[in-house]
Every structure is written in structure tokens, then in C-alpha cells.
Amino acid sequence: MIIELTALHYVYLLFIVAIIVAMIMKKDITLICIIGILAIGLIGTDSVYKSVMGVFNSFIYATKELMPTILIISVITAMSNVLAISGINGEIVSPFKAVIKSYWIAYWVIGLVMMILSWFFWPSPAVALIGALFLPIAKKAGLPAIGVAIAMNLFGHGIALSSDYVIQAAPKLTADAAGIEVSKVVAASVPLTITMAVVTTTVAFYMLRKDIKSGNMPIEYEVENDEIEKEGPHLITSKVLRKLLALTIFMLFAIDIGTMYIYKLQGGDATALIGGTAIFILSIVSIMSYKKEALENITNNLVKGLQFGFKIFGIVIPVAAFFYLGDSAFSDIFGNILPSGSNGIVNDLGVALSNLVPLNSIIASITLTIVGAITGLDGSGFSGISLVGSIARLFSTAIGDGVETLTALGQLAGIWVGGGTIVPWALIPVAAICGVDAFELAKRNLKPVAIGLAVTTVVAMFLI
User: Fold this and answer.
1) Which of 81, 296, 374, 434 lies in the 20 to 30 Å Cα band around 442?
2) CA angle 354, 356, 361 (to 5 degrees)
């Protein structure tokens, strides 16, 4: 059945193009999304007040959809803060000190630890921990600071953040925009993530090894962070107790992973399990750390975590609000004003496109990678991945298959570019803690990431 496209469809498509252009020009897209929602409301309802209400209601809708994700990141951040202050974080990674004896071991161990911690805590909290504890060890083993920064970037902000298998913030955004289940995006991303991970980390290590042997290393800066040079005072003074708590926390999260597998928990259920465990750990460690002041400090850390969560997702809400209009959110916000038989703006556009353009898996894969990379140019990694979900749905409708793979591919490209691997302004935290130049770090990451995206795109073509 062919749905006749209306002004709503064309205006929505026009604003998608405007958003892409703005991202290419490295401009913020929040205002464009707001104007887009207002314009769609005016065309669809012929009412100014309903359109204005629709803008606010779309924000409420997006916030409700994203709230579990915002909360889990906030809770994880709050827990991470307490673990750092108590000294437990140091005990979690202390066993690796005896393992790192050469620069190549340092590269892979730091990367793998960063990846694992980033899956559970997200890269932002993990950066300070890994940098503070591993940088001096890595230098003694012969790995320069730029090598530490590269490993942290590629494994944390690249592999872990783009896959996001535990917290599932990224697949939640893209899956909602694509109109599919989170579990399908996660499953489809596995072969793409493995491909990207192997190619980028191997190429980066090969290039780094050549530079180390030739002595072609960049200037390192003095890092103004006492935590890197020595351990500061900890709220939990007993080293034995810190080790016991570190082991307990590791076991609790291991039990969570086992529970997810046994009971097949995914999406919101998996997030709730991790979040509940993090709150439990936050509470117990706070009581043992702060003692009589535990009640106040638990609240303070939760507030700091919420501030971080909303700071990260504040830019995402208006963008997600616009792209949610492409599917089920439209009728909830503006009422049932789409043409009879419509399956949503994005689906309608997909059907129309399939009748006009002979799309295939090759063109669709290349386009999703390019669009995903463009969405990452703002340095967020998350602000535009709703767009790739919508485009993946549109293209899959046109070619008749592959929505999960296309969605995962666009998500991967967007976060690898913007999440903190090759956009200089997103690399500042890692560069600062390692004492290297952010632009130099971006330059060294560029070739491995570009090669990885090219190879992964080819793999996606065969999977669709």
C-alpha cells in the first residue's frame, strides 16, 4: 500500500537534512529540532497554541523515554565517586600492577581494563581512575603517555561506549528511533563491534609500536594531578577492608551478568538490575566511609550523579524529541492527524523511497556510516544517534531488511567519532590526565578509526 506523502512528511525530511548540514558545519542542532517540532505542529494542527504545547509535550515524552538511561548513568557516577574517595577503586585495579612488565602488555591491559570498567561505569568516570593508577605503571614499562591515551580512547570511548552492552544507553536511543527492540540492536552490533575493535586496536598498536621504535613520540606535558603520582588519603583506611570490598563489588557485578544470562534480562530489566546493585553498593560503601555523615553524603553523591547525567543528556532530549515524532510519539503529542493508513512519518518516507530509489545494502551501509560519523562531529557522540536510528528504519523499509544491522552500524560510527576518539574537543579529559595534546591524540586515532569504520561497513554489507 502506497501512502500519499503530505506536507508533514516533506517538512520532517527537510529538517532532517537541515540537522545533517548543521552537524557538518559543527553547529548545535537543538534550536533546529525545536523549530522543527513547532513547524510540524503548525502544519498538522493549524493551531499556534497546540503547536507550542506540542514542543513542551515532546520534551516530556523524550524525557520519560530517556529517564531510565539518565538515572542509571547518574547512579553509576555517584557510586564511582564514592569508590574513588574510599580508595576501593585503587584496589580493584591493583592486581594488574604485577602484570604490566612491557609496553605492549601495558597497552592491551590498560585497554581491556578500561573497556570493562567503561561497560559498567561509562568511560567518563573510568578515565580518571585508569589515568591516575595506570599512567605511572605504563611509563615504567615503556609505554609513553600518548600510548596510554590511545588505549583508553579506543577501548573505552570507542569499543565500550559504542556497544554499551551493560548500561545500554546508546542502543536504547537508536532502537527507539528505529522502532525496534533494544535487544535486537545489541545482538546486531556484536559482529560489527568485534570487527571494529580488532581492526582499530591492532592498527593503532602497530602504528604506536613503529613510533616507539623510531622515537617519534610527541611532547608530554606536566600533569597537575597528585593522584597520578601518589595515592591520596582514603576514607576507608584499612587496606584489607578495601580489598575485601573490591572483591565483593566485583562478585556482585559478576552475579548480575550471570543473572542477566540465566533469566534473559535485557534492555530496561538489565539496566534496573545494574542500577539497583549500584545503589546498594553506593549505600553500603558510603555508610562504611562516611559513618555518621553517611546520610548526607549519600544524598550529595546522588545529586552530583544526577547533575552529571542531565548534563550529558540535556543536549539529547530536544534532539530525541524531534526524532520520536517520526514514529509512535506523533499521535501522543499532536493527535491522530497523519493520513489514513500511515505507519508513521519515517515508515511512510521509507516506502516512498523504495518506490523512487533502488537502494541496496551497499549504498545503505555506506550512507549510515557517513551519517553516523557526521552526527559525532559535535563531540557528544549521543546527540545525533537518534537520527541514525530513524534513517536506518527508513532505509531498511526501502530495501526490505537490515534495520538492526543498519541501526547498529550508524550507532557505532556516531559514537566512535564523537564519543571521544577523533574529535579533539571530546578528547580533552583523556589528553589532560595523560599530559598530551588533544589534537595530537586525535591525529593518531584518526587513521585506525577510519580504517576500522571502512572494514566494519563492508562487514555490515554482507550481514544485511
Assistant:
1) 81
2) 45
